[in-house]
């Protein structure tokens, strides 16, 4: 007797509906052949993935190099932390972005002892310097 003739006579639905379902090995050891086994999921459904995330670029770095002309508000350096420090006529934003305060040319300077890098804007010709930035030789005892 073949399997196909058995399915035709009894019907596959009747075999499955009348078969007992065992939940554990102890119940199955009691008797007979079990036709239906429970199948447990072995993988997550819907194909979840651990990849697929990427952050947008922050476009950091020097935007105006030494000798370039700038106008007030031009961004000179975008940085995280203070790799470059603001010098003459250079302001610093809350995210450490350095920007020009006056029209002129950008100049980078490095301190030989400390290694600290400064960014300055040399004002355009004919520009009146603010008294803070004048390099006048004053005795250290006198205050203005």
From TrEMBL:
PROSITE patterns referenced in this protein's UniProt entry, alphabetically: RIBOSOMAL_L27
Molecular function via GO: structural constituent of ribosome
Q: What GO terms describe the biological role, i.e. biological process, of this protein?
A: translation
Leader peptide range in chain numbering? none
Identify the GO cellular component terms for this protein. ribosome
NCBIfam families assigned to the protein according to its UniProt record, in alphabetical order: L27 (TIGR00062)
Q: What is this protein called?
A: Ribosomal protein L27
Q: Which organism is it from?
A: Zingiber officinale (Ginger)
């Amino acid at each position: 007797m073949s399997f196909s003739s058995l399915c035709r006579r009894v019907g596959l639905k009747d075999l499955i509906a009348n078969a007992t379902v065992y939940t554990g090995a102890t119940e199955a050891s009691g008797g007979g052949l079990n036709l239906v086994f429970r199948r447990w999921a072995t993988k997550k459904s819907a194909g979840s993935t651990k990849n697929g995330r990427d952050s947008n670029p922050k476009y950091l770095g020097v935007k105006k190099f030494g000798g370039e002309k700038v106008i007030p508000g031009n961004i000179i350096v975008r940085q995280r932390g203070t790799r470059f420090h603001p010098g003459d006529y250079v302001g610093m934003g809350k995210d450490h972005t350095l920007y020009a305060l006056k029209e002129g040319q950008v100049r980078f300077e490095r301190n030989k002892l400390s290694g600290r890098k400064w960014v300055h804007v040399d004002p355009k010709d004919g520009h009146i310097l603010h008294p803070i930035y004048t390099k006048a030789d004053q005795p250290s005892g006198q205050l203005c």
